[in-house]
């Protein structure tokens, strides 16, 4: 069943073209700095706030960060979990994600089984997502025991993305790794987009409007940026990205 956050994202993509989502890593912020990031990026036109990172954070701190963001902005807050400790009752929704190229069943279905009852209990909206780590994989690749898809093997990314769609997942995320030196190549995005019918999310290493524009024109429906929103120039950078990707129909 499609919930209200998912419907909001789909309608935004339909009406505005490619959209931007801000990623806040709870490990790198205080509740106060998370609020500032959320406010700045919201006023620059970001469509939602994702909260999550690849490493260790206490659920208590995560709750404080999510609550602070919720108090500050009205746009949806979507959890981006790396484990069951990343589930906060104060968010609106959660990417219910499976790391499709993990070699460890825990990241394919184990954590999801442990987390599902909590999601139900907290009334969070789960949004099914196939998560694929590409390129050098970064910290997410190490933590998730991924076998990353090399950038020069777009056909393997296509195969993973199609499998996600055929399993009933409603979004696919090509993850280049936070802080990646090179973002996901447009050729890989284009190849995946050509074969799938569900929205494609791209993130990892996108630092400027040129890179965001390249991803949007190759077929990304959602661009996620994390590192640049921690920067003092976040407001300007996100605003430039939002303006440049708007109106790309994917
Ligand atoms: C990481 O794709 C996201 O999960 C965002 O990456 O921090 O490099 O923007 P950056």
What distance lies between the first and last C-alpha atoms, to the nearest angstrom?
Answer: 23 Å
Global shape: globular
CATH class: Alpha Beta
Q: How much helix is in the residues?
A: 40-55%
Query: What's the mean pLDDT score?
Result: 96
The major sheet is characterized as: 8 strands, parallel, barrel
Number of strands: 8
Number of domains: 1
Q: Any idea what the CATH superfamily is called? A: FMN-linked oxidoreductases
What is the strand content?
Answer: 15-25%
Walk across the major sheet and give the strand order. Answer: 1-2-3-4-5-6-7-8
Provide the list of bound ligands, each named once.
SN-glycerol-1-phosphate
Architecture, CATH level 2?
Alpha-Beta Barrel
Describe the 3D structure.
The chain is α/β, with parallel strands linked by helices. It has a single domain (4-9, 18-245), classed as TIM Barrel (Alpha-Beta Barrel). The protein has helices at residues 4-16, 31-43, 59-72, 105-122, 138-143, 154-166, 186-195, 209-218, 234-245; strands spanning 19-24, 48-51, 77-79, 93-99, 125-133, 171-175, 200-203, 222-225. The protein has an 8-stranded parallel β-barrel with strand order 1-2-3-4-5-6-7-8, surrounded by 8 helices. The radius of gyration is 16 Å and the shape is globular. The structure holds SN-glycerol-1-phosphate. The site of SN-glycerol-1-phosphate (1GP) has 13 residues, from β8. SN-glycerol-1-phosphate is lined by residues 23, 175, 178-180, 203-206, 224-227.
